[in-house]
Amino acid sequence: MPDPIPSKSPAPRIAETTAGKVLTALLALFYLSLATTAAGGEWHTLFLPACLLAAALLLFCFCIIRGDKIPSPGLAGWLALGLGGGYFFLRAWLSPWFYYESVADLGLITTAMVMFMAGAYAGAGDGKKSILPLLAAFLGLLNALLWGYQNVTGTEASWFRPDYSLFGTELRNIGLFGYKNFSAHFLSITGFFLCAYSMASARKWGAPLFTGLALILVSFTCSSRSAFPNALAGVTLCFFIYTSSVFRNNRKFYAAAILFILLLFFGAAYAVLDLANGAGKLGSLLDIFSFGSRLDLSKLAWALADQAPWTGHGSRMFTNLSTEFFSGASLPNFAHHEYAQAACDYGYAGLGLMLALLALFLFSGFRSVLKLADGHQRTNPLGPAAFCVLCIAAFHAYGEFIWHNPALLGASALCCGITCTASLSRVKASRRAGRWVQASAALLLAVLALCFAFLAFPVWKASLHAAPPSSNGRLPMLEEAASASLDPDLVRRSILHAAGSSPAPDQARLRELERQEEEAELLSPGNHGMVAAKSLLYIHQGRYTEAEQLLRPYLDPGRFDDRMFAWTTIYTNMLYSWSAISASRFPGQALSMALTAQEIMSAQTDQWLFYGALDPEVRKEHDLRLSELKMLILTLQSRGAVPDSSWRK
C-alpha cells in the first residue's frame, strides 16, 4: 500500500511568527514617535515616524508574499478603507493648495489607514496579551511626567521637541503636545482606555485601572476646558461597560443603571452651565458647548462650506480661506470643529461619508459592549475600551481640531479598527484577493512614507541643533531649513527673522529671500500668509508703492500683532517709514500717510483695550511709534502741509 501523501502544513498566522512580532514592535515604535517627537503635528517632525512606518509596511508586504495568514477587517473595515480612505486620500492628493498643506493631510490620512488596520488586527484576537494597554499606560504616564517636570522646574523645554528652538515657539508647560488641550485629551483617552479595558476584563481591580484613574486626575491640572466634559462622557461609558460585564442578563438593573447615569450626566452638565453663564439662555448653552468664541470659527466654516457644498474647497483650504474672511482679532489655524472643517474642506459629501463611517464604528463598538452581557461568551476587552475612547473623541471633535494631530488621529483610527473586528463572533482570514489588495495598498503607502521622509529630512536635520528661543543661533538653522525645503511657512518665518535682525540684511540677501519667497509661492499658490513676508522684503528695498498695494486688501484695524500674521502693523510701519522719507519732497502725501497710519493705530489701541493687552513690549513699541507719528504730523502741519491722498493711486 503506497504511503499517503503528506498534507501541506497550514500557513501560520502573522501574529504568531517572528516577522509578525517585529511588525508589532515597529508599529508600536511608529506610534511612540508620533506621540513624542512628532506630537506637535508639524510635517517636518514626521521624518522618524515616516521611516518606521515605511519599514513596517514593507515587512507587512513580505509577510503576505511569504503566505502568512492575516485577519480580514470585515465588511465595515473594507468599507472604511475603500470608501473613506480612498475618497479622502484622492481629495487630499488633488487639493488646489497641494504642496505642504496637502502633504500634511496625506500624512494624516496615511497614518489613519495604517493605525486602522493595526486596530483591526488587534481586535481579531482575544486581547489578553495585547501590548495596547501597556503602550497607552506608558505614553500617558510619559505625558504626565513631562507635564509635572515642566511645572515643577518652571522650564519650557521638551524632552523630545528640539524643533521648537527652530521656530522659536514657547512651550509654557504643556506636555508632549505643545498644546494644553491636546495634552489633556491624550491623558483623558489613555486613562479611560485603561479604565474601560479593566471594566471589560475578568480582573477589574488592577494596575490598568489605577493607572487610568491617575491619568484622568492629571488631565484636570492642564487648565483645559475639555477635561471635564471628557470625564463626564468617560465615566458614563465606563459605568455602562461595568454594568454590562457584571450584571449579565439582568435587564431591569441594566435599564435602571443607564437611566441613572444619564440623569446624573445631564444634571451635572446643567449645574455647570448654570454656574458658568446661566443655562436658561440658548446663547450661553451654544457658547459653552462650542468652547467659547470658537462658535464664530464654526460659523465661518459652515458659511464657507455653503460656497462649495458638494465637494468642498480642498484639503486644508479652511486655513487659507479663513485668513481672508475671518473678522476676529486673532486669525485661526483650524476651525476647531472637525465636522465643520470637514464640510468646508471636503464638502457635505465628505462630511456625510465621515459621519456614516463614524456611526458604523460606534455601532460596532456598542455591539462589543452588549456582548459583555451575554453569559455564553467572553468578548475582547479591547472592543469596549476602543468604544469608550471613540465616543470621547467624537464628542471632543465638536470643539477642537484633535483629528488634525497625527498622534490623536492615530489613536482614534486604532480604536475604529478595533471596533470592526472585536465585535465579530469569528474573524475570518483574508482571501487571496483581499491579501493582495492589502499588500498593494501597503506598498503604495510605504513609497509615500519614504517620499515624505525624504521631503522632511532637511528641516528635521536642521532642527536637531537645539538653541534657546531667544538665541541668535536659531536664525542660521531656520535659513538652512527654509532654503532646503521651500516650505512656505519656513520661508515666511525666515524672512520675518531676517527683517528684524541686527544688522539689517544687505540687498543681495534680500534678493535671495525674494527668490525663495517666489518659489515657495509657486508651490502653494494663493497662500495669504506669504503676503506679510513679501511686503517686508519690498519695504526693506524701498519699494513702498508695491508694498502698499500688496497689503491694502488685507487692511483691518481689528487684526493687530497676532501670532500668525500682522498685516495691519506692517502696513502702519510702512506708512510711517514712507512718510518720513518723502516728507521733504512731498509733504502733502507724507501728511496723508501719517494721518492714515495714526487712525489705524488708534483703532488698534481700541482693539487691545477690548481684547486685553498683549505682550507689554509690543504695547510699548506700539505706543512709541504712535507718539512718533503724532510728532511727524505736528511738524508737517506747522509747515503748512495739506493732506494729499494721491499716493493711494
From TrEMBL:
Q: Which residues form the O-antigen ligase-related domain?
A: 213-354
Any single Gene Ontology cellular-component annotation: membrane
Annotated segments matching region Disordered: 500-522
Q: Which InterPro entries match?
A: O-antigen_ligase-rel_domated, WaaL-like
Q: Which Pfam families match?
A: Wzy_C
Membrane protein topology class: Multi-pass membrane protein
Keywords in alphabetical order = Membrane, Transmembrane, Transmembrane helix
| Compartments, record wording | Membrane
Q: Which domain of life is it from?
A: Bacteria
Spans traversing the lipid bilayer: 21-40, 46-65, 77-94, 106-124, 131-149, 182-200, 205-221, 227-247, 254-273, 346-370, 382-399, 405-424, 436-460
Its recorded name reads O-antigen ligase-related domain-containing protein
Q: Which organism is it from?
A: Akkermansia muciniphila
Read off the lineage from the record.
Answer: Bacteria, Pseudomonadati, Verrucomicrobiota, Verrucomicrobiia, Verrucomicrobiales
